[in-house]
What does this fold into?
Amino acid sequence: MNRFNVKAVAVLVLLSGMVGQRMAVAETAKPADVTYTKDIAAILWKNCAGCHRPGEVGPFSLLKYQDAAKRADFLVQITADKRMPPWKAEAGHIQYRDERRLSEEDLAKLAAWAKAGAPEGDPKDLPEAPKFAEGWQLGEPDMILKMEESFTIPADGNDIYRCFVLPMNLSEDRYVEAVEFRPGNRRVVHHAIMYLDALGQGQKKDAADPGPGYESFGGPGILPTGSLGGWAPGATPMRFPADMGRFVKKGSQLIMQVHYHPWGKEEQDQSQLGVYFTKAKPSQVVLGIPMIQTRLKIPAGEARHRVTTETVVPADVLAIGISPHMHLIGREMKVTATAPDGNKQVLLWIKDWDFNWQGAYGFATPIPIKKGTKLELEAFYDNSQDNPKNPNSPPKMVRWGEQTTDEMCLCGLTVATADHASMTALAMMRGARIGLIFGGGFPVDNMKQAGGVPIPDDYKAVLAPFDKNSDGRLSDDEINAMPPGVKERVRAAISELVGGAE
Ligand code: HEC
It folds into this structure.
């Protein structure tokens, strides 16, 4: 029995005078054992204060006793419902990096504490206050990309999806081992996605749209040639495992897509991205394996519409993370990997999808995935009137598209691979473009060294006649020998596949 037990018992004993029932009283008084200073502060500081402190995204601070005590019941309810801390992946399948979850023990302590009237406890029990790193958490970046001018977010109105085009001025191809996004204004910056554009497409859009950047919901409104990942509140920047990096083609521009959420007062934002390059060319390139179902036809009124897609992994890879994506009426997504030997593994299961809390889930340790592994994606959509997130009232048939009111069904498995053949195989996958977004770009050297671009199965019948040496690939010379018209189209298709690098 610790001294709080003793204290509680002593008080109760004094009040009731039931000396003979000391132990029984101590049992029922158990919730009083839990105090803020001894138990609760540590739980809130570790799991909540990262966002719930001044200047962060949480709507109130949870650093001090009073902050927590005055809303103790609310904290219990919201954590029991698993609404906070925000973490959508189900437990019990894969171990992720930086998981945000309260243990059953923590939940029980919170409940007991609130039930006991949120006692503060002995100030001496208070653990050392948490230190939150100011400035760049990964140290001084090699390159800082900052919005050129600040962007004004009106006091109210719809959410804003704005893309800012930031030149990287790279005179040679580089590899990125980490990025760190720093929102300029945490009140309104909801999340951000970093796309790469080696084709100057973003610049054209920017020029055509008044104000800094350009408007684009969902995707970046261009065909990205790569990606540098994303940021959501509470995300901790991290480096890839050693000797891995995302490819950035020289001359690329960063398209920083920021989702703003107006909050009642006009605000300004000027966010920035710190980029950390690998010192040397890494032996493993980070890429994305796309799982995608574009044939969406979600009937109006249907509350549980099922969508599936299957993808076979074309090479041995190391999986390092997974990034699901749906829009507003998405409810559930599950991704299962079945290895050639039949071994099944659930890589991600989100049962309560929330567009506002999408993010990338990094695996605690890289997962080897064998060539021939089947990735099965199953998603559910709620297009009923009863879904409060349904943007259409009354509900309408929803199909694939970029608008808020459209839907998407995709998920990227971020993988690393060392060899050219694997990279080429990934580049030729259906939906490889999406893979680029979730992974990095494709270093074109790999395509060239592989002796040209392999002809995708779907195009064999059409393109085989141009494959003069019948090696299943189209080399530069073979493409040049094509008739005008065909040549340009094939070139365009290849440039899309290899991130505009041809
Ligand atoms: C990753 C950032 C983040 C973390 C970690 C986090 N919160 Fe929040 N919390 C938010 C944001 C943003 C909101 C406001 C938007 C929302 O409700 O989704 C919020 C809202 C809340 C609300 C008010 C909800 C409402 O409906 O008004 C409560 C209560 C809350 N959080 C408690 C907690 C507790 C308790 C923890 C820790 C166990 C926690 N939060 C961890 C970001 C976070």
